């Protein structure tokens, strides 16, 4: 479980990254595995991260230039990161754990430079398996992992995930199912025959890419 949550590089985000990344901030950076992946793909000038899990944060310090250990809400990011200075901010399976993710997104959006990217991944509460278990079994039990992870405080569907990612005045570039289904996967067939209309029920997780315009945010 430790490796899955804190030490697994998020290779699935590679297709959604901008062409150039100089300065990146990874919220929930774990051991720094995803930043290490980026260092192999880009010429990073600076990489920072925030991680609440102390042991993972200690490992991340070997990979990142700066790590804030503790909750995002308590991290004094602005003291060291100027506004309009970051190319990329990652919030991968993080925002659903926060009491007020909207305020967090507004705060982070101000740190992006014009043209910068906020990349968010969020679970989809409308997934058919959850709905089936809720309706037919009355199952809303929290678990150690997954959609009903006991540390999830907020729940989202596609539209509200987009609203959150753009709540800092950014503009939506992409919202996609995070899973790349194999050609033989029945879910891929269902998406094809439905013209994508079943996506809201099939997707377990969304990847949202939000961009800051050259004129800044609309906030």
Question: Any overview of this molecule?
Answer:
This protein has 219 residues and is of the alpha/beta class. It has eight helices and seven strands; from the N terminus they run αβαβαββαβααβααβ. It has helices spanning 2-6, 33-41, 54-60, 101-109, 128-137, 158-165, 186-193, 199-202, and strands at 23-27, 46-51, 66-69, 86-92, 112-123, 171-177, 205-211. It has a seven-stranded mixed β-sheet with strand order 3-2-1-4-5-7-6, with helices on both faces. β4, α4 and β5 (112-123) form a beta-alpha-beta unit. It is globular and about 50 Å long. It starts with a helix and ends in an 8-residue tail after the last strand. The mean pLDDT is 93.
C-alpha-based Rg, rounded: 17 Å
Largest sheet, described in full? 7 strands, mixed
Described by the principal axes of the CA atoms, the overall outline is globular
Strand order of the largest sheet: 3-2-1-4-5-7-6
């Amino acid at each position: 479980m430790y490796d899955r949550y804190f030490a697994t590089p998020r290779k699935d985000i590679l297709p959604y990254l901008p062409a150039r990344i100089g300065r990146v901030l990874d919220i929930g950076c774990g051991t720094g595995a995803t930043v290490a992946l980026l260092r192999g793909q880009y010429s990073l000038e600076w990489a920072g991260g925030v991680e609440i899990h102390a042991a993972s944060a200690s490992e991340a310090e070997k990979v990142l230039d700066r790590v804030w250990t503790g909750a995002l809400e308590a991290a004094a990011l602005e003291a060291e990161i100027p506004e309009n200075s970051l190319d990329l901010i990652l919030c991968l399976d993080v925002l659903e754990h926060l009491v007020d993710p909207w305020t967090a997104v507004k705060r982070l959006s101000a740190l992006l430079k014009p043209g910068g990217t906020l990349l968010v991944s969020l679970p989809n509460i409308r997934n058919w398996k959850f709905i089936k278990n809720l309706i037919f079994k009355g199952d809303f039990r929290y678990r150690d992992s997954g959609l009903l992870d006991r540390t999830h405080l907020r729940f989202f569907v596609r539209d509200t995930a987009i609203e959150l990612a753009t709540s800092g005045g950014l503009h939506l570039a992409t919202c996609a199912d995070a899973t790349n289904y194999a050609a033989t996967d029945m879910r891929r067939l269902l998406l094809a025959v439905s013209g994508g209309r079943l996506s809201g029920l099939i997707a377990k997780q969304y990847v949202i890419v939000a961009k800051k315009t050259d004129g800044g945010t609309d906030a």
